[in-house]
Design brief:
single chain, Alpha-Beta Plaits, 14 helices, 29% helix
């Protein structure tokens, strides 16, 4: 049996969760999942500002907190996609943390190959149109692309572990592959044993979002103690079946409902949950509550992996800004609407009306319209306006029009003291596919000391 835990479901997850988990429970692997499509765009922007960045900097703080457990638990290994847009930079930064802690002999493996930005012209020359797989539109304007990352699978992770890595840092790999890699390395098996890979993938999928499988974000959230929620552990057996649990004494819960809620999270067609490793059929999965925060999961089946890899591509698409004001009084909704109309008319007069405009009345029904049908009055409402345009100067003018409403708009507005909204670039999302044979992965394993030289 192999114990694989996950203590990060996204960039910005609870920073203390990894340390608290390994202090309470002995596990073989700790996975940390930081990436999503939005996160890649954020990291692409960071790398654009500073080529040395572009990785999940939270990981360095987590690694600081794990120095003592790494010293005290020789079996503990870490697998993470914290490398983001810059796995090599992340490895060097992690090596510095380890070196300062006297752990400079720790072996760090880095998986690269997911970054396709330098290869776009080569891919197109090879016949890849990089068409948007939702609209079918081919990619035309290459000059506006800022990032393009393929979703790699578990094999290079397993290779890094086989080469002696104690910490594996990747760029964009599929979330479940962070678990599949260690499972295949430790428990053995063939890379075309589709049923077994499907079961490993189900285990990875169940723990990839952290506390979402242990009571967080659950419909039964009020029944659980979430301030000290325990993050998940998958106890995986050689045949791929697993037990989902959490550290003893931690908050939250593991029961059939929490597990099933995560099982069906973001899967699309349950008969064909596609990963770089396998095509999973979730409809054959059996979930059994054994009580005591232990749920057995088994029975997943699989088909051969897809011949293509998903690519998360981002491109420049203008600028946006978002600002908000509080409108209060019995006619709060009318005041907020009037303030929005005034702001937009002033921009029109100035010749700076944004191409895209979104007005929301939070508390007045826009956030939850079914519960506010026909509502015309509200004593307190947040006016939030978001504007987008190809011209930065239009957005700059937009940000200057909020404060004047305080004395030249309706009575009963507040919130201007927060300052002007910021103008930020828009990175739009373009999902596409590439043949997997055109995306070779590379693995580099060195000691922390060697990463620093």
């Amino acid at each position: 049996m192999l114990r694989i835990a996950n203590a990060a479901g996204f960039l910005g997850d609870w920073i203390d969760a990894p340390r608290r988990l390994v202090e309470r429970a002995k596990v073989d692997y700790l996975t940390l999942e930081y990436l999503a499509e939005l996160t890649l765009s954020i990291l692409a922007r960071a790398k654009e500002k500073n080529p040395q960045l572009g990785y999940a900097e939270d990981f360095l703080e987590v690694l600081h907190s794990l120095v003592a457990p790494l010293e005290q638990q020789p079996q503990l290994k870490i697998v993470t996609n914290a490398g983001g847009m810059n796995p090599l930079g992340c490895a060097a930064a992690a090596a510095k943390v380890l070196g300062e802690a006297g752990l400079d002999q720790t072996m760090i493996g880095v998986v690269t190959g997911d970054d396709l930005l330098p290869k776009i012209d080569h891919l197109r020359a090879a016949g890849c149109t990089l068409k948007n797989f939702e609209t079918g539109t081919p990619l035309v304007d290459r000059s506006q692309v800022v990032s393009a990352n393929a979703y790699l699978g578990a094999q290079p992770i397993a290779e890094a572990l086989a080469d002696g890595a104690r910490i594996v840092i990747t760029g964009r790999v599929a979330d479940a592959s962070l678990t599949v890699g260690p499972a295949m390395h430790e428990l053995g098996g063939e890379w075309d044993d589709w049923d077994r890979l499907a079961r490993f993938s189900v285990a990875g999928h169940l723990i990839e979002c952290g506390a979402q499988v242990t009571g967080g974000y659950s419909v039964d959230w009020s029944k659980y103690v979430l301030a000290d929620v325990g993050y998940p552990i998958a106890e995986i057996e050689a045949d791929g079946s697993c037990m989902i649990t959490k550290p003893t004494g931690s908050g939250g819960a593991v029961n059939r409902r929490t597990v099933v809620e995560q099982l069906v999270y973001e899967i699309g067609d349950p008969r064909h949950y596609l990963t770089p490793d396998v095509d999973c059929d979730f409809t054959t999965v059996e979930v059994e509550d054994l009580s005591g925060d232990r749920v057995r999961v088994q029975g997943a089946t699989g088909l051969p992996r897809p011949e293509t890899l998903k690519v998360s591509l981002a491109y420049r698409d203008g600028f946006f800004a978002s600002g908000q004001l509080l409108a209060f009084g019995n006619d709060g909704i009318a005041k907020a609407q009037a303030a929005s109309d005034i702001l937009r008319e002033r921009l029109r007069i100035a010749g700076c009306e944004p191409k895209h405009w979104l007005m929301e009345l939070l508390g007045g029904g826009d956030g939850c319209p079914l519960n506010h049908a026909g509502k015309s009055s509200c004593a307190e409402v947040i006016l939030r306006i978001t504007a987008r345009d190809p011209r930065r100067e239009v957005l700059e003018r937009f940000t200057r029009e909020f404060a004047p409403l305080i004395t030249s708009g309706p009575a009963g507005l507040a919130g201007y003291a927060a300052g002007r909204p910021s103008v930020r670039p828009v990175y739009a999302y373009w999902p596409t596919l590439v043949p997997r044979q055109l995306v070779p992965a590379s693995v580099d394993v060195r000691s922390a000391k060697e990463w620093l030289t």
